[in-house]
Write a structure and sequence with these properties.
Layout lengths: L5 E5 L2 E6 L17 E4 L1 E6 L6 H8 L2 E9 L1 H11 L6 E10 L3 H9 L4 E2 L3 H14 L3 E4 L5 H14 L3 E3 L6 H6 L5 E2 L3 H11 L7 H21 L3 E3 L2 H12 L1 H5 L9 H5 L23 H27 L4 E2 L13 H12 L4 H8 L1 H6 L15 E4 L13 E6 L2 E4 H18 L10
Parallel strand pairs: 4-5, 5-6, 6-7, 6-8, 8-9, 9-10, 10-11, 11-12
Antiparallel strand pairs: 1-2, 3-13, 13-14, 14-15
Helix pairs in contact: 1-16, 4-5, 8-12, 9-12, 9-13
Length: 439
Amino acid sequence: MLDSLTVLIKDNKIMQVTKEASIPNEYRIIDGTGQYLIPGLVDTHAHLHNSKNDLLLFLANGVTHISEMFGQERHLKWRKEAQNGALSPNIFVATRKVGSQKGFMRKIRSWFGSQSNYDTPNKARKAVREYKEQGYDAIKLSTFLNAKIYDALTDEAKKQNIPTIGHLTSKVSLKGLYTSGQSQLAHIEEITKSTMVDFGGLNSENTKEYLTYLKKNANQIAIKLKERGIVVSSTVWIIESIPKQNFDIENFLKTIALEYQNPGEIEGSKLAKGWLPGNNSYENMDIKNDLELIKKHKLFWKAYVDAIHIMTKALVDNGVTIITGTDSNTAGVIAGFSLHDEFESLYKCGMTNGQILYAATVAPAQWMQSNAGKIETGYRADLVLLDKNPLENIKNTKTINAVITNGKFLNRTTLDKILQSIKDANNKSRKISIKKYIN
């Protein structure tokens, strides 16, 4: 941490970082005495869906760069608008999920705009080339991929110099991942899920045995990921939230900034689950009156979450590059706000405050080949001014005094107005009251 520095910014670039600056008359002076300047934060696993208000929620929470992980044409348009100076974080756009499902399920998924499926290697290779031509930044891999299509996708992507990211299919497994060329795993959960398959499955009866197995193998897995240079997006907090939503949804909803979430997402529809009791995709309605079954499910989910913590600690201890991601707009995960929740989860897993900030700034910027993530001459002026030191307490990333991005200075008053406008818009379009969940 450097003290008492002056940062000169022009045309959204850092021109100088110095202790003895000669400030030209045309510069606007922002006095940050007693405050803390950090690079803009990055969420590497976002789902924007249809609401551009999410872009403002990210900015209001100091997030100046996101990775959209189910990209569509509108997201490419939003990325262009951001590049042209719109009030928005920068957007890295991965394709929608790419899979190899066949038959009726493939047809159903296509009806609802879900993953794209390819049944021959040649079609998969052609798709990679087309996605590259359309301007996507990465190819998003689905869980539902057979080995031949997976190999074709990753090989063609290497030839086209476009990264492959996303899920880990059971048809490939960790062993196949190490030599595949896939450069990023979208969730730490993808690793633990693969170990559960190798173990023979996790259930309420074998939780201790499985966790012992994972502890025995976690470091070796991490070492191999490190050797292959595979980056892992975290998404830890969402996993921790699932048992809370599963068994205590009413109280869980009171712990998140629900009033800022798009009402359409909260309320759901005939075709999609929402976030509220009785219609939440994680809530387990089938076991509510079966105490013995509830006990078993709780044992399972405790082990599931513990596994994420064990694996995260192994990744940290062995120097694997972790980048912060949240899975925003998944049930319970609110754009912008959720990244700060993720920081606290990573801290509990053994990351230091400095490591968390690195995972939220430098590491993702480098992986996305973005000229951001550092406060150095020549870098993008994506910055966040904090009232309290995040190296002392990671919760201090929430003490946002101002955000600088795309050449715009957004002070606390402006950020509060943005948040209030989103809250007002949500209340106007709300069909179901959420007052009981707002403290």
